[in-house]
Every structure is written in structure tokens, then in C-alpha cells.
């Protein structure tokens, strides 16, 4: 029985091995095909760039030939030595209009000194549409080759190049933003600490990275300098990136449904509830906050605070602690988890 079991299991093992081998071979073939397509696309783009460059250069040479080799002077007119043909159309028009009066001067200029030297044509320039198409093709070639659009030069890595900080500048200490809280609150805190430089966008942009950490800092490093020209550009991009934190801010219904955990004491729960209440927009009035907090308390806290006349949240906490001192709760300290250090 054991031999037959081994014999029957052997073919299944070989079958699974062959299936995995075929899957690996198929995956390798797909990768090779993708690499071949990328190489073909890369070669095609290079040829297209070379063709465009050749056409632009050829067209430039033809234009230069027409400009500098075609005589445009009337018969009998001799231009000044050392000046190329077609150098100044306005001057030529003036000379043509005054040709009868300056015939003698033109002949005198013909016997002047020899040429000053070979003429150097102006540098070759590509117009804007051609330059944009050229840059787009080069960008695609770099993307396919994996070189990317950013190098390792300092000018490429800096969001604000050529920044100059004042000699007495001292970097403030910022609370680090991790990407999990309201972005507008962080911007307000940052701008208040940088109030002395409100009109210097380059300093505001450069120092903003010092107030970030973790994922938020990685987001900042990934920004492109071409998209961030002013502080407003950076602030708008920051709010768009972390706007979901504003949408997740607590509201009144969340505060009303909050409850004290068994593992936390009264002070910890009060602090947690108060921190969430501070994030509600629009802000809660103090009296409404007290009433809402009392409604979330479990017995015996609720029974002894429901009739409280406390006008502020801090006064309500004091009422709870004083009630414990007078033993109105009639429960051990270990159950309430309140110590004298809490007040």
C-alpha cells in the first residue's frame, strides 16, 4: 500500500513542477517582450529627435544662405567694407532713397580699406513650439532609459535655489507635522513663528521642510521646483495633499457617542474628550461643551454631575474631584482611579 501511494503521488509532483516551470517561462517571455518593446520605442524616439534636429539645422542653413548670399542692393550701390550683406535693412532703404545725393560718397567708400574679417552669423535659435516639442521628446527618452528628469546636482535637489538667509537668521523650533492632523492649523502655527519673514517667499518655502516629518517630509522632497514659485503655491499644494484630515475632523455627533474606556481613568477620558472637542468646527460654546460631556459620563459620574451648575469645562472637572473628597461617590479610590495629583 505504501509503494502504491508513493507511485501515485510522484506524477502529481512532477505535474506541479512542470506547471510552475511553464509559468516561469511564460513570465520571462513577457518580460523579454516588454524590454524589447521599450528598446524599440527608445530607438524610435532617438531617431525622431535626430531627424527633427537635422531638419531644423537644414532649414536654418537655408535661411542664412538666402539672407547672406542674395544681393539686394540696387545697381551702382556699394556697401561699406566690413559690413555683411543684409546687415541692416533700414539703412539700405535710407541709402536707396538718397542714392542720387550720395553717389559720390559711395564711390569714395569703394576705395576704402579691406574687410575687417570673416563674418560670424548669429547663433542658431529654435522657436518656442519647436523647443517645447524637443524638450518633450527628450523627457520621454529619459523616462524610458530610467534617468528621470532630476539629477543629483544641488540646483536640481533644492526647491528654492540661490536662497540667501539673513546673517542673524535662527531657525525656529517647529512642531513636526506627520500628515495626520489638520493642515490649516499647521500652516497657521508655522506662519506665526515665521511672522518676521511674511514677505519673503523664498525663506518661507525653504524653512517649511523643518516643520515636517515622516510621510509629510517625503511629500515635500518630491515637489518640483517648476510647480512651486511662491509661498501661496506651496500652501495650496499642502492643503490639497492633506485635505482629507479636514474631512475627518470630529463633529458634535462623534463627541456625543464617545464613552469612557474601562482601561482609562476619569482624567484621561476628560483630556481625550476635550482634545477632540477643540477640533470641532465651528467651536462649541463652553456651556454646550459641559452639557455634552456630562451626557457621555457613566455612573456614578453622571448621577452626581447632571445637576452641576459649572459654567466651564474646568469647573466641571473640579466638581468631580471635590465630590470624591466628600465621599459622595461611596466607592473605593481604586475603582474611580482618581488621585489627589489629578487636581
TrEMBL record:
<feature type="domain" description="Retrotransposon gag">
    <location>
        <begin position="208"/>
        <end position="297"/>
    </location>
</feature>
<feature type="region of interest" description="Disordered">
    <location>
        <begin position="69"/>
        <end position="127"/>
    </location>
</feature>
<dbReference type="Pfam" id="PF03732">
    <property type="entry name" value="Retrotrans_gag"/>
</dbReference>
<feature type="compositionally biased region" description="Pro residues">
    <location>
        <begin position="115"/>
        <end position="124"/>
    </location>
</feature>
<feature type="compositionally biased region" description="Polar residues">
    <location>
        <begin position="90"/>
        <end position="108"/>
    </location>
</feature>
<protein>
    <recommendedName>
        <fullName>Retrotransposon gag domain-containing protein</fullName>
    </recommendedName>
</protein>
<feature type="region of interest" description="Disordered">
    <location>
        <begin position="1"/>
        <end position="25"/>
    </location>
</feature>
<dbReference type="InterPro" id="IPR005162">
    <property type="entry name" value="Retrotrans_gag_dom"/>
</dbReference>
Amino acid at each position: 500500500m505504501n509503494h502504491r501511494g508513493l507511485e501515485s503521488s510522484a506524477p502529481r509532483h512532477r505535474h506541479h513542477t512542470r506547471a510552475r516551470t511553464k509559468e516561469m517561462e511564460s513570465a520571462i517571455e513577457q518580460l523579454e517582450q516588454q524590454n524589447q518593446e521599450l528598446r524599440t520605442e527608445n530607438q524610435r524616439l532617438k531617431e525622431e529627435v535626430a531627424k527633427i534636429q537635422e531638419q531644423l539645422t537644414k532649414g536654418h542653413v537655408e535661411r542664412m544662405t538666402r539672407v547672406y548670399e542674395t544681393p539686394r542692393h540696387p545697381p551702382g550701390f556699394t556697401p561699406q567694407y566690413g559690413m555683411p550683406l543684409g546687415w541692416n535693412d533700414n539703412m539700405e532703404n535710407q541709402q536707396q532713397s538718397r542714392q542720387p545725393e550720395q553717389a559720390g560718397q559711395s564711390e569714395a567708400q569703394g576705395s576704402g580699406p579691406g574687410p575687417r574679417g570673416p563674418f560670424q552669423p548669429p547663433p542658431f535659435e529654435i522657436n518656442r513650439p519647436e523647443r517645447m516639442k524637443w524638450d518633450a521628446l527628450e523627457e520621454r527618452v529619459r523616462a524610458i532609459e530610467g534617468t528621470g528628469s532630476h539629477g543629483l546636482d544641488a540646483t536640481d535637489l533644492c526647491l528654492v535655489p540661490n536662497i540667501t538667509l539673513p546673517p542673524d537668521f535662527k531657525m525656529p523650533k517647529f512642531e513636526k507635522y506627520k500628515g495626520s492632523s489638520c493642515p490649516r492649523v499647521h500652516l497657521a502655527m508655522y506662519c506665526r513663528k515665521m511672522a518676521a519673514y511674511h514677505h519673503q517667499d523664498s525663506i518661507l518655502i525653504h524653512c517649511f521642510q523643518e516643520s515636517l516629518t515622516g510621510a509629510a517630509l517625503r511629500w515635500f522632497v518630491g515637489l518640483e521646483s517648476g510647480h512651486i514659485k511662491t509661498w501661496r503655491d506651496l500652501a495650496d499644494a499642502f492643503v490639497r495633499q492633506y485635505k482629507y484630515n479636514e474631512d475627518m475632523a470630529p463633529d458634535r455627533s462623534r463627541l456625543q457617542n464617545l464613552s469612557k474606556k474601562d482601561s482609562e481613568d476619569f482624567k484621561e477620558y476628560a483630556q481625550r474628550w476635550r482634545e477632540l472637542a477643540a477640533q470641532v468646527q465651528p467651536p462649541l460654546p463652553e456651556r454646550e461643551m459641559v452639557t455634552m460631556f456630562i451626557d457621555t459620563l457613566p455612573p456614578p459620574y453622571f448621577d452626581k454631575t447632571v445637576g452641576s451648575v459649572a459654567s466651564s469645562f474646568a469647573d466641571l472637572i473640579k466638581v468631580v474631584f471635590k465630590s470624591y473628597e466628600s465621599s459622595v461617590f461611596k466607592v473605593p479610590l481604586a475603582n474611580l482611579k482618581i488621585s489627589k495629583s489629578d487636581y
